[in-house]
Amino acid sequence: MEAKSVWDADGWRASANRIFGPISCRPYDAEFSAWATQREFSPDLRVSRIETGAQLLDRPAALIDAGQAQELLVLMQLNGQSTLIQRGRAVSIGEGAVAICEGDVPFRFELPTPQQSLIVLQLSRSLAGLPAHMVSQASAHRIGADVPGQVALRGLVYGLQSPQLALSAGAGVGVGAALARAAAEVFSAVVRGLLAQRGPEVGERLKRLAALRSSLREQLADPELTVEQLAAQHFLSPRQVHALFAEEADTPAAFLRRTRLQHAERLLLQRDQTGMTVAAISRESGYSDSAAFIRAFTRERGRSPVRWAESRRGGSGSRETRER
């Protein structure tokens, strides 16, 4: 077990990055102090006890390395109150409550008052063994005692960080792996229990998102289409539209951009039959002018539209075709 007393912001930043990986720490006052202990039971399971002053922990996309471990965090509040913001959702976590955070998805964790106490369980995604869509639906939701398995998960998390749990040197590896599997099983049961409770709500939100995506596909040729117009068509607010896409780590603009480029790809591959020019394809794909289309396509696909189509057909094309 590692124990580290930290009495300044710089020391805590170093400790937090060592314990949790790349993360931004912003204390709210000059008298900030914190300490943390961490136990590693296996490469798939670690548990930390944290006592901290008021601060903001932030992991934007820029701090997420594709090569770093994909972890799921179970946040258990012992004292104080915190707020987890992820996938467009904000959940308040009070004493005795639990929330799940995806460590490899951007998030913010606000601890607005001093004397905060919490336990963080870090579990690898691979050991949890849950489909990504289930975890994404369960993250950033308050998990109270009414969720099946929550009490067992709290007891397990609290017991794992207790100094009274001592592993002998000889039994450490095998027992640690067994504890990691047990934690994964309880975690999985809690996620399934939470989603079962939220089933009707989740189903309705997925239907709304599917309808929004369908509308964007149908209107992809309109270069003037806005989120405000899309929201009005579905009797939603722009904020609700953004929140629905954020639950899938997406945005309306990013989805529309991908959809337009995919549509343009299909038209480019059909040019020999249709005779469409690049300018016509750009208009059909929702771009106001061909120059903007060519820049966007080249930025995403690494080559111009015509050269991309030629590479897919396996030919170089004539000079006249390339210039059209």
From TrEMBL:
Q: Does the keyword Hydrolase apply?
A: no
Q: Name one GO molecular function term.
A: DNA-binding transcription factor activity
Q: Which InterPro entries match?
A: AraC-bd_2, AraC_XylS_family_regulators, Homeodomain-like_sf, HTH_AraC, HTH_AraC-typ_CS
The record places domain HTH araC/xylS-type at: 210-311
**Keyword DNA-binding attributed:** yes
Which keywords describe this protein according to UniProt?
DNA-binding, Transcription, Transcription regulation
Report the superkingdom from the record.
Answer: Bacteria
Q: Mind telling me which Pfam families this protein's record contains?
A: AraC_binding_2, HTH_18
Database matches in SUPFAM superfamilies: Homeodomain-like
PROSITE patterns (alphabetical): HTH_ARAC_FAMILY_1, HTH_ARAC_FAMILY_2
Q: Where is this region: Disordered?
A: 302-324
Per its record, how is this protein called by name?
Answer: AraC family transcriptional regulator
Q: Which organism is it from?
A: Leucobacter luti
Its ancestry begins with: Bacteria, Bacillati, Actinomycetota, Actinomycetes, Micrococcales
